[in-house]
Structure formats: structure tokens, C-alpha cells
Design goal:
Number of helices: 6
Structural class: mainly alpha
Largest sheet: none
Helix content: over 70%
CATH architecture: Up-down Bundle
């Protein structure tokens, strides 16, 4: 685990988050709510790891990343957060159809977002954050997960 690549860690987290969303049955709002709430919590944690730990470190070591890929990811995070919040609020109100529409809107952004991260940004971070720096980023993420 100490030598885990940043790209592998974040891709695995994407997969786990995607599996949570796939388990949501919008036709059964009451039963679906705890699953969507866990999806929301996990996706928010993932975004915070990126915004507070990974992106600032990568931008400091490779400033052009801040104005290109990272800036795009941050803008998309705003859209993703809005739609996931809306989906959760609708589902909590018993509106499974509305929650499904909000989730579909979120997925329009999230699908491409994850692809860009997995194919471009995370591999770049693996190269930029080599050795001890990558290990430090992973240690901070794990510490933040516990606290």
C-alpha cells in the first residue's frame, strides 16, 4: 500500500463510488435514500481529497496544471456538487423521479470528468508527484480519512 500509485488509488475510489450509485433504486425512495446519502458522502470525500490535498500539491510542483486540467476539474466539481445535492434533497422528499433526473444531469458531467481524471490528470500526478512526495500525499489522504 505504501507504493500505491495516486492514479490507482483514485480510480479504485471512483469504482467504489460508482458501485454505490448503481445500487440506488429511485423507484423506492425510502430504501434508496441511505444508499444515495452514502454515495453523496463518499463522492464529497473524494472531491475534498482532490481539492485540499492532491490538486494544490500537483499545482505547486507543476504550475501549468493549475490553469489547465485542475481549473477544469474544479469548475466541474461545482456542477457535480449542485446536482448531487439536488438529487439527495429530491429523494429525501420522496421524489424518486426528480432525484433520478438530477442524478442523470450529474452523470453527464461526472462521466467525462472521471475519464479526464483517470486518463490525463491522475497519470500526470503520478509523474509529477514521484517518490516521497506521492507517499506524503497518500499519507495525508489516509490521515484525513481517519479524522
Amino acid at each position: 500500500m505504501a507504493d500505491e500509485m495516486i492514479s490507482d488509488f483514485f480510480k479504485k475510489d471512483h469504482d467504489e463510488i460508482d458501485a454505490l450509485l448503481a445500487a440506488v433504486d429511485f423507484d423506492r425512495p425510502k430504501e434508496a435514500l441511505p444508499i444515495l446519502a452514502e454515495f453523496d458522502r463518499r463522492l464529497e470525500r473524494h472531491i475534498v481529497w482532490e481539492e485540499e490535498i492532491l490538486f494544490p500539491t500537483a499545482a505547486r510542483l507543476a504550475p501549468p496544471l493549475a490553469h489547465g486540467p485542475i481549473a477544469v476539474m474544479l469548475e466541474e466539481h461545482i456542477l457535480i456538487r449542485k446536482d448531487k445535492r439536488d438529487a439527495l434533497e429530491r429523494l429525501a422528499a420522496g421524489d424518486g423521479a426528480g432525484a433520478k433526473r438530477s442524478t442523470a444531469a450529474m452523470l453527464e458531467v461526472l462521466g467525462g470528468h472521471n475519464m479526464k481524471e483517470e486518463q490525463i490528470l491522475y497519470p500526470t500526478c503520478d509523474r509529477v508527484l514521484a517518490g516521497a512526495q506521492a507517499a506524503r500525499v497518500m499519507d495525508v489522504i489516509r490521515e484525513k480519512s481517519r479524522g
